[in-house]
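Methods — Computational structure assignment.
A single polypeptide chain was analysed. Its primary sequence is given first, followed by the predicted tertiary structure written as structure tokens.
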Amino acid sequence: MRTSAGKAQTPSKMIFFLPDRSWAPRRAYKDFKPANWQGISHEPSEKRRVGRSDGARLHFGDGTGLFGRSRLLAGSEIAVGVLEHAANFHPLSGRMTLDMPTRRIGRIYGAKKENCTADVQFTYRSPPLNFFLKPRLTAKIQVSTGGATNFASFGQEWRQDTLHGWLYGQAGIGIAVHDGYSFTPDPYAHDLTASEVHRRRQISSRRTSFGSPVLFNPNASIGVRVSERWAVEASWEHFSHAGLFSKRNPGIDNIGLRLVRTLGR
């Protein structure tokens, strides 16, 4: 380019178009790397998350494995589930074992009296603890939507992953309390009014006598991870006292599904 005086003028800066569609001064051309043609950042690997497929396992730039597994899958969890109340499905036997005294005519025992209702369950799980198979501390509240017995439990759960973390199974045990009846009122007691007999019969026909205010809560579930932070579990929850606190021990089983959210950044 020449000025009106005829002297050549050298531009102080020249601009050109790079293959990654960014404008840059010519002096930056010496810093141009072929990788820029593919739009790959030159930031250190710990500052970026660029995925690559390696068989069934997914790797990230920070080396954490599936879904950032070493960081995220070891975090705490919250879950909400819907369970069938008194489903009476027991994975260890074909039927429940009832250890009860001889019943009188018209008396009905067992948890089936509370079936055909649904429960909503809220769960919190801690990160795995660093001792004996790394259990998770677990707290659960199970609320009946049909006016049946509600439960609250605290315990531990142990988990085993498979298929690179996509599938897992877990089992646990806890101590539970409930707001139901340890023993329903006896409608055949002496000196009862007609209204009181009717009330007690209604309770006995609809509510379960658990035999103790404190129960054990063995449980198990199978989970499938659907994303980095979300999983779906098929779950089984059992409540009974194994006949340790009284002869009346009908037990109750609940089965259903849970939606699980892994916490953490």
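Note: The longest helix spans residues 194-206.
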